[in-house]
Amino acid sequence: MFSTEFEQHATGDDLANNQLTDDETAMTEISFLPDGRICLFGASREIIELLWTLNLGDRALLARHLSIQAAATRSSVDAMELNAMEQNESQVPT
Amino acid sequence: MSLGTPTSTRISLAHAQLQGCDLCEHRCGANRLAGERGPCKAGPDARVFRHRVECGEEAELVPSHLFYLSGCDLRCAFCIAEANAFDPARGRLLTRDFFSAAVAWGRTQGARNVQWVGGEPTIHIPAILAAMEDLPDLPPIVWKSDFYGTPVAFDLLHEVVAVYVADFKFGNDDCASRIARVPDYVQIVTRNLQRVARESELIIRHLLLPGHFECCFRPIVAWLQQELPLVKFSLRDGYLPRWQASRLPELSVPLPRGEGLRGRQYAIERGLNVLD
């Protein structure tokens, strides 16, 4: 089914997002060498996580997997703190 | 001034470079505003041919929001960005509105930083600084570069960039000249590495090239061992013969199996701080 979201007038947000959602340059390139090595270019979070599930025993993959997990944890902590701050502010009498 | 936010004075100084460009060590002096073009072919505008949040960069940087700018001062035969790297007319015009919206999107994707890559971002310093002017809550700026810039270029970036990722590609001038068509490569790159190592956080990256273990990799390791033994060293072994690599016989094949591990062990044995 066709999406109609790109038929709207372009805004700054659209300019930023369309490039990612509608453009093949945002794709991860994966090359399989004949000897079984896998080369990645522009690896997305999803590709790293997918490869991680294959238990390839690759140190570079482990390091990046851990960084992604750490970033996700930080983001959720930040979101919780922001939420708590907003709740506190809303309780301040005016 | 907070780190990452360029001042209007600095933006003016950068803009002046467009009237007599000395941003890279070609020092062509082209008046880019008047339509003159140097070896990089860049005009006054910068263009983004790709931007996306990536997780394949050095682990401490990911997730990183990369902005790929077209145009480059080098002519590496094996460039993985291929034609996009060498034609500065490719891509979407870099404007403050676009950049601001893109950064906001990147933040929703969990990006920890903004990373300028190319091509080569150094040739686009004026447009990059202008795009970042007065942006609130700008993430830390990562500057991925070939380090063939002039001292003027690094002056303009000082205290704007949080982390430099330097691509130390060649260990001698002959290989640099033959593969990337640039003179005086080693002296220029090592000079810049020394400076940035004193002033900022630095990661030095090297992509192992097939057939260049002795002539390029070993001299780079030796220099690092001597001059910057504590610097973070990112060794890449994912070379693929792309772009015009086939014109150079030794570069027309993938890196031999085992060469990555061999290089890593070699660097570790010499005391370098090799990243995973």
How would you describe what is shown here?
The complex is a heterodimer of chains A (94) and B (276). Chain A is mainly α and 94 residues long. Chain A has one domain. Helix content of chain A is 54%, strand content 9%. Chain A is built from three helices and two strands; from the N terminus they run αββαα. Chain A has helices at 12-21, 45-52, 59-91; strands at 29-32, 38-41. In chain A, a hairpin with a 5-residue loop joins strand 1 and strand 2 (38-41). Chain A starts with 11 loop residues before the first helix and ends with a helix. Chain B has a single domain (8-274), classed as Alpha-Beta Barrel (TIM Barrel), CATH 3.20.20.70. Chain B is built from nine helices and nine strands. With 276 residues, chain B is an alpha/beta fold. In chain B, helix 9 links the parallel strand 8 and strand 9 (273-274). Chain B starts with 7 loop residues before the first helix and ends with a strand. The chains are: A mainly alpha (94), B alpha/beta (276). The A-B interface holds A 11-17, 19-20, 23, 25-26, 31, 33, 35, 37, 39-45, 47-48, 59-60, 62-64, 66-68, 71-72, 75 and B 48-56, 59-63, 66, 80, 92, 97-98, 100-105, 109-110, 112, 238, 240, 254, 257, 275-276.
